[in-house]
Amino acid sequence: MRAIAAGLSDIGRQRVHNEDRFILLPEFNVFVVADGMGGHQSGEVASRMAASVVAGYFRAGAGEGPDIQRNLRAAVTLANAKIFARADDSRAHRGMGTTIVAAAYDTGADEFHVAYAGDSRAYRMRGGELSQLTRDHSLVADALLERPDLSEADLAYLPRNVITRALGIGPTVELDVRADRSEPGDVYLLCSDGLHSLVPDSKIAAVMRAGTVLTETCARLIDLANDHGGKDNITAVLVKIEEGAAPWRSDDRRATLVD
Fold this sequence. Notes:
The protein has helices at about 40-60, 70-90, 140-145, 150-155, 195, 200-210, 215-225, and strands at about 1-10, 20-25, 30-35, 95-105, 110-115, 120-125, 130, 175-180, 185-190, 235-240, 255-259. It is α+β, with helices and mostly antiparallel strands. The chain has a single domain, classed as Phosphatase 2c, domain 1. It has a six-stranded antiparallel sheet with strand order 8-5-4-3-2-11, with helices on one face. Mean pLDDT is about 90; it is low at about 250-255.
């Protein structure tokens, strides 16, 4: 089987610049969404570095080993180290960071691997049903993990925009990594919180069920988030698993890096 992908990013309706970044590296079956944070456009620097470092890692051939999950983890870990070093060395970039959700499709094992830190998410659409593959690293999500019985009234006292993990915040980062066994027809969504924090999963699922062209579906998801206020930058990457061989050569090292 093969993976085909499309992605779009939008500034939203209330931000002055876009701190989201995404990359599509179809020749390596690697796909990334990063959502930067930090004042004075530092978040934009962090997310751009995350995208560039992951792309550079695979384009340089470092990710050619058979252990796809290890390679993905290594690429994201390297991105964290470089972002932290930049922030530690530059007063202008002090405190910058970025969430990340990075995915790699293993064509040999038909597995979709995801590594992530923060509240950017990965979903899978299968048979018309949408499933969230990631768990937000946020104050609210962590509280629910410790106390599943917390009520909405209890959660109302917690700030909903506090992230507990991200790249660049420390010299090391704890990544969650998981593998999902893929089937033909599966469609994976990687997105920033500019989408999922405004649009309920049920509406995301409805758009994905109705979509037939990946780029058009990405555009509809972004339009929906803007219709719900567009309070943040919005990024959506869709990856579809289908029968057939990849149309590119194995020695083709091009990557799509959206700046």
